[in-house]
Design goal:
This protein has helices at about 5-25, 60-70, 75, 175-180, 185-200, and strands spanning about 30-35, 35-40, 50-55, 80-90, 95-100, 110-120, 125-130, 145, 145-155, 160-170. With about 210 residues, the chain is of the alpha+beta class. Strands 1, 2, 3, 4, 5, 6, 7, 8, 9 and 10 form a ten-stranded mixed beta sheet that branches. The protein is globular and about 45 Å long. The chain starts with a helix and ends in a 15-residue tail after the last helix. About 25% of the residues are buried. Mean pLDDT is about 90; it is low at about 5-25.
């Protein structure tokens, strides 16, 4: 029989291998590096995934305050036309509806998104899971999108924030994949550029959130 110690080692090896396989399958390619921002894309799905990375000299509380401010969303979400908050539970869950502009002759897109905030004090890491939801506000004038992703924010020993923004979105309708993929890097780049500027606003400073310890 396999000892418990050996079982543990095999389990660790299994998860290590699975993580390595998952990372390899994503096949990230650096496509842009500008203004302290790195943009990557992955062709592991029909509609490519994107990943943006930057480091900011701001507090983790300022970042949470920024992401909780739905009134500001239209000013930083790329091509965002309209945002409405549907549900909020404390500071760790948001459900909101977004209308996004797309080029003519295609219809504008809509999606209902859920953000779940999770703080890991051991690694000083904030993970915000992002998922689209069905059964909420829908409008036949728009095409519904589906997708998932996350914000991952690590507080570095220096106090700066190491920020990763990653998403995979299926735009729905009849938009060809080649057209969507051609501009896939624009969303994370402009989103992070706007984050760099707007997080400095006074209303996001000196904030404290109890779930972050």
């Amino acid at each position: 029989m396999i000892s418990m110690k050996r079982k543990y080692k095999l389990l660790v090896l299994y998860f290590f291998c699975m993580n390595a396989i998952s990372t390899a399958q994503e096949n990230w390619k650096l496509i842009k590096k500008e203004n302290g921002i790195e943009i990557y894309t992955s062709d592991s799905t029909k509609y490519h995934s994107f990943k943006g990375h930057t480091i900011l000299d701001n507090s983790i509380h300022s970042f949470v305050a920024f992401l909780n401010d739905m009134d500001e969303y239209v000013n930083w979400g790329y091509k965002t036309k309209e945002v409405s908050l549907l549900k909020k539970s404390g500071d760790t869950l948001q459900i909101y509806h977004v209308i996004t502009q797309v080029p003519f002759p295609y219809k504008n897109r809509e999606g209902t998104y859920q953000n779940k905030f999770k703080w890991n004090s051991d690694s000083s890491t904030l993970l915000v899971d992002i998922n689209t939801l069905e059964g909420y506000k829908e409008n036949e004038a728009f095409v519904r999108v589906q997708g998932n992703g996350f914000w991952k924010v690590v507080v570095l020993p220096s106090g700066k924030l190491d920020i990763t923004f990653q998403m995979q979105i299926d735009p729905g309708g009849n938009m060809p994949a080649w057209l969507v993929n051609m501009f896939i890097g624009s969303t994370p780049y402009h989103t992070l550029v706007n984050l760099q500027k707007l997080i400095k606003k006074e209303k996001y400073q000196n904030k404290k959130f109890s779930f972050i310890q």
